[in-house]
């Protein structure tokens, strides 16, 4: 059974770069699209973007310019880097795998990781 | 595309029939999904393509609608259904979510 697990620093200083990794276990990262969403504490859900295992990406325009996603198939991992963070980027970040049969519909989630932006 | 949900919260009893509405600012065809989220947990997919029940989801959950107006119905609320529910449109990129409807115990 495929599992996803987010990892990365739980605290990032303002203006620095938030870096998270999602590790795929129990199966190969190949052949699938993956996405990230986030949820500020007590608030709703926001789409961040998706990445294919080949490295092609599509970001939320609201984050474009600050966001880079990448994939490392040798480690079965994909990553997110968000530059110049502010308190507004404080959120629980989730990664998920996209269902091969239904576009943008997830079939597997990570548990989420809280990232706090604070000095 | 902006999504609105109503109500923003509701109180209900076990066994009640609950209906949540999601309205899109422009048509999204049937590219709409519903999620359930409990505190500290990732969202759980309930319904996609407006009315298709995700595998393993109890049949008391149902979805309907197309275009701009959608509903999620829970027929016979169970204790494990107390949660926040979100709609999501997938017709236009980026996918967007509604603000959520919190269902709690009366």
Record the SSE blueprint:
The complex is a heterodimer of chains A (119) and B (106).
Chain A (H helix, E strand, L loop, with lengths): L2 E5 L3 E2 L5 E8 L7 E7 L6 E7 L4 E3 L7 E6 L4 E6 L8 E8 L7 E4 L3 E5 L2
Chain B lengths: L2 E4 L2 E4 L4 E8 L7 E6 L6 E5 L3 E2 L7 E6 L2 E7 L7 E7 L6 E2 L3 E5 L1
Parallel strand pairs in B: 2-11
Antiparallel strand pairs in B: 1-3, 3-8, 4-5, 4-9, 5-6, 7-8, 9-10, 9-11
Briefly say what this structure is.
Helix content of chain A is about 0%, strand content about 50%. By secondary structure, chain A is an all-beta fold.
List its salient traits.
heterodimer, A: 119 residues, mainly beta, seven-stranded mixed β-sheet, four-stranded antiparallel β-sheet, 11 strands, globular, B: 106 residues, 0% helix, 53% strand
Indicate the overall shape of chain B.
globular
Strand content of chain B: over 45%
Largest sheet of chain A: 7 strands, mixed
Coarse morphology of chain A = globular
Helical percent range of chain B?
under 10%
- Major sheet of chain B, described briefly? 7 strands, mixed
State the helix count of chain A. 0
Low-confidence stretches of chain A: none
Task: List SSEs of chain B in N-to-C order.
Answer: EEEEEEEEEEE
Q: What amount of the residues of chain A lies in strands?
A: over 45%
Query: Quick one: how many beta strands of chain B?
Result: 11
Could you give the distance between the termini of chain B? Answer: 33 Å
> Rg of chain A from C-alpha positions?
13 Å
The low-confidence runs of chain B, each spanning 5 or more residues with pLDDT under 50, are: none
Q: Give me the count of strands of chain A.
A: 11
Helix content of chain A: under 10%
Largest interface comes to:
A-B, 20 and 19 residues
Mean pLDDT of chain B, to the nearest integer, reads 97
What's the N-to-C terminus distance of chain A? Answer: 39 Å
Q: How much is the radius of gyration of chain B in Å? A: 13 Å
């Amino acid at each position: 059974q495929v599992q996803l697990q987010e990892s990365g620093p739980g605290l990032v200083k303002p203006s620095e770069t938030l870096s998270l990794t999602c590790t795929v276990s129990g199966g190969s990262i190949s052949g699938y699209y993956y996405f990230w969403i986030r949820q500020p504490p007590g608030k709703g859900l926001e789409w961040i973007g998706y990445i294919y295992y080949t490295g092609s990406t599509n970001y939320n325009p609201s984050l474009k310019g600050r966001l880079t996603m990448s994939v490392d198939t040798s480690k079965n991992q994909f990553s997110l880097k968000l530059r110049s963070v502010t308190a507004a980027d404080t959120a629980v970040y989730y990664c998920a795998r996209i269902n091969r049969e239904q576009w943008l519909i997830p079939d597997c989630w990570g548990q989420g990781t809280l990232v706090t932006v604070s000095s | 595309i902006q999504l609105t949900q109503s109500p923003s919260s509701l109180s209900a009893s076990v066994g009640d029939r609950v209906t949540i509405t999601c309205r899109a600012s422009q048509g999204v065809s049937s590219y709409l999904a519903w999620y359930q989220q409990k505190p500290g947990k990732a969202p759980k997919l309930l319904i996609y393509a407006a009315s298709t029940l995700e595998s393993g989801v109890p049949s008391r959950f149902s979805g309907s609608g197309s275009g701009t107006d959608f509903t999620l119905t829970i027929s016979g609320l169970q204790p494990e259904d107390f949660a926040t529910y979100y709609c999501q449109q997938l017709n236009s990129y980026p996918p967007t979510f509604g603000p959520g409807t919190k269902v709690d115990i009366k």
